[in-house]
Amino acid sequence: MRRIYTCFPEGRFKALTLSYDDGKITDRRLIDVLNQNGLKGTFHLNSGYFGETKGHRVPYVTREEAADLYRGHEIASHTSTHPTMARMPMEGNLQEILEDRKTLEEISGYPVRGFSYPNGVHGEKLYQLLRSCGIAYGRITKSSKRFDLPNCFYAWKPTCHHKEQLMEHLDRFLDTEYDQRLMLFYVWGHSYEFELDHNWELMEEFAKKAGHRDSIWYATNIEIYDYLKCAENLVYFADLHGVHNPGAKDVWIQADGEIHRIQGGQTYLF
Q1: Are the beta carbons of 184 and 11 closer than 8 angstroms?
Q2: Over 80: is that where the pLDDT of 72 sits?
Q3: Which end of the chain has the smaller Cβ count within 10 Å, N or C?
Q4: Residue 119: pLDDT band with limits 50, 70, 90
Q5: Looking at residues 102-115, what average pLDDT do you find?
């Protein structure tokens, strides 16, 4: 019987993504490090705090700079003003999400569909609320210490915070050659932590070692979400002699050890 596996783009089985919260001015340095090394990240912003300095140890980025600063990465929501959502009425949470989305979409020029939960608080009612607000996924703060794909996109566990044995996890990720399952290395944190902890060299070392590798797909959170959904929607012949891709995006699969690119809208026979 033919064996078919889903791959990441170009037939890869490894992907790496980063996710950073709050939108502080230290994102400027972090993005410079990522860009130098070919890494991509998702930045969850509180649009209600754009340009704020008073009462904050590290100021927020301005609305005027956001479009250029985050270009090539993903702008995602973190609510407008960072409340603890479990203590809020759903009407308030609804306003926080939608107001953040509307502002961020005016800046980015695309639908904002990503989310991370302020203070890490999440639950089934919030999953339902995100879904009704057009949000595709929600990242939580509990680390898995693994390289798994999410079982639930509304409770998307990262691999680790950058303070949690980052380089050890990277070495394990790079050294693993077991291609029977897809591997996703997902790092999260706050860029201002590098400034407060005086350890920017940690991210610089990580990015240099992790970046510019042909074997890794570097993607934002929403790119990973969209790609996996497209892969799920492939329609196979009953005897597996072919497949139809009803979506617009190309999807890569491995069939009996050979890599195939299934173009959007096309039917492919093996």
Answers
A1: no
A2: yes
A3: N
A4: very high
A5: 98
C-alpha to C-alpha distances, 81 to 44, 67, 74, nearest whole angstrom = 12, 19, 19
85-93, Cβ contacts within 8 angstroms, sequence gap of 24 or more: 85/117, 85/118, 85/121, 85/122, 85/126, 86/121, 86/123, 86/126, 90/125, 90/129, 93/126, 93/129
| Predicted model pTM | 0.97
Q: In whole angstroms, what is the distance from residue 136 CA to residue 182 CA? A: 21
**Burial track 8-34 (b if 16+ CB lie within 10 A, e otherwise):** beebbbbbbbbbbbbbbbbbeebbebb
Q: What is the pLDDT of residue 256?
A: 94
Please report which residue ranges of the chain form alpha helices under DSSP H. Answer: 27-37, 63-69, 90-108, 124-132, 166-175, 191-197, 200-210, 221-232
3-state secondary structure of 125: helix
Does residue 1 surpass a pLDDT of 90?
no
Query: pLDDT by residue (tens digit) across 146-205?
Result: 999 999 999 999 999 999 999 999 999 999 998 789 999 999 999 999 999 999 999 999
Distances (CA, A) of 85 to 21, 130, 137, 164: 16, 12, 16, 26
List CB contacts of 181: < 8 A, sequence separation 6 or more.
13
- Determine which helix (DSSP H) or strand (DSSP E) holds 4, and give its type and residue range: strand 4-6
Q: Mapping DSSP to helix (H, G, I), strand (E, B) and coil, where does residue 100 land?
A: helix
